[in-house]
C-alpha cells in the first residue's frame, strides 16, 4: 500500500495521507502475523514485510501522535510474546533513528506504556537475544529522560506492591468465606475437592531500591555488549535479501549428484 501511494501521486493526493496512515496503523496491529501457509506453519519473516515500519518512516509528527498510544500498547504485547521473532521485530523499532526521534518527542506518553513490558521481560524472557534488545531499549529511554525513567520505575514498583496487597486481600477473603462455610452442618456433604496450587509468575517480587540500581548498571553493561555483538555480526534489521538460508537446504544441494548413468542421450541429438 505504501508503494501504491508513492507511485500513484496523480491519483492519490497528499490530503489523503493522514487518514490513510491512521486507518492502516490501527488495523494492521497484530501480535503474530497470519502465515500464508494453509497448514498453519510457524511465522516466517519472509512472508511478512515490516509494512508498519515503512509507514512510520514517512509519517508526520502530528499524525504519529494520533496512532502513538495504540501502536506502543501493541508493541508492548509483542515484546512480551514468547515467540522470539515477534519480540525481536518489535524491538527493532528502537534501531530506527527517525522513529526514535518521534519517541523522544513523546517520551512522557510512550515510556509509561513500554516500561512495564520491558522491565518484566528483561528478567523473564527465555531468549538471550531479546534480553540484549530490551536492555538497549531501556538504555535509550534512560538517556532520553533520566527523571522520567526513574518515575516510571517507582510507579512500576508501586503497582507491583498494590498487586501483592490485592492478592493477599483476596486470599484472606476466601479464607473467611471457607471458615463460614465450615460452620454449616451440611458442609461435609458439599465440600469441594482441594483447589490446585496457585500459578505464580516468573517475576513475583516487587523491585527494591537495590533492584532499581542493579537494573541501571545491567542496562549499561548489557546494551554495550549487545552493540559489540552487532558490530561483529551484522546490522540488526534483516530484509528479505539478508535472511539466512536454511542449513539443511544448503547441505542437501551440496550432497546432490546427478544420476548420469540413468541418463541416455538421444541418437538424433548425436
TrEMBL record:
Q: Which InterPro entries match?
A: ARM-like, ARM-type_fold, PP2A_B56
Instruction: Identify the GO cellular component terms for this protein.
Output: cytosol; nucleus; protein phosphatase type 2A complex
Identify the domain of life: Eukaryota
Which GO terms of type biological process are on file? Answer: signal transduction
Q: Name one Pfam family in it.
A: B56
GO molecular function list? protein phosphatase activator activity
Give the family per the record.
Belongs to the phosphatase 2A regulatory subunit B56 family.
- The protein's name is Protein phosphatase 2 regulatory subunit B'delta
* UniProt organism field: Molossus molossus (Pallas' mastiff bat)
Amino acid at each position: 500500500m505504501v508503494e501504491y501511494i508513492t507511485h500513484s501521486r496523480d491519483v492519490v493526493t497528499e490530503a489523503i495521507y493522514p487518514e490513510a496512515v491512521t486507518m492502516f496503523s490501527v488495523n494492521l496491529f497484530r501480535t503474530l502475523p497470519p502465515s500464508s501457509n494453509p497448514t498453519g506453519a510457524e511465522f516466517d519473516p519472509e512472508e511478512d514485510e515490516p509494512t508498519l515500519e515503512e509507514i512510520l518512516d514517512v509519517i508526520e509528527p502530528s499524525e504519529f501522535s494520533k496512532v502513538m498510544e495504540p501502536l506502543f500498547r501493541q508493541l508492548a504485547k509483542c515484546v512480551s510474546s514468547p515467540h522470539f521473532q515477534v519480540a525481536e521485530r518489535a524491538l527493532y523499532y528502537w534501531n530506527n533513528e527517525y522513529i526514535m526521534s518521534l519517541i523522544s518527542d513523546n517520551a512522557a506518553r510512550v515510556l509509561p506504556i513500554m516500561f512495564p513490558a520491558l522491565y518484566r521481560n528483561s528478567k523473564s524472557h527465555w531468549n538471550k537475544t531479546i534480553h540484549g534488545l530490551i536492555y538497549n531499549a531501556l538504555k535509550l529511554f534512560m538517556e532520553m529522560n533520566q527523571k522520567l525513567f526513574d518515575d516510571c520505575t517507582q510507579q512500576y514498583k508501586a503497582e507491583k506492591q498494590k498487586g501483592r496487597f490485592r492478592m493477599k486481600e483476596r486470599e484472606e477473603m476466601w479464607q473467611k468465606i471457607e471458615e463460614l462455610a465450615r460452620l454449616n452442618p451440611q458442609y461435609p456433604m458439599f465440600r469441594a475437592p482441594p483447589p490446585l496450587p496457585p500459578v505464580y509468575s516468573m517475576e513475583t517480587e516487587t523491585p527494591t531500591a537495590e533492584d532499581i540500581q542493579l537494573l541501571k548498571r545491567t542496562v549499561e553493561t548489557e546494551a554495550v555488549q549487545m552493540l559489540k555483538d552487532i558490530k561483529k555480526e551484522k546490522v540488526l534489521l534483516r530484509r528479505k535479501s539478508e535472511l539466512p538460508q536454511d542449513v539443511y537446504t544448503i547441505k542437501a544441494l551440496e550432497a546432490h549428484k546427478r544420476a548420469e548413468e540413468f541418463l541416455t542421450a538421444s541418437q538424433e541429438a548425436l
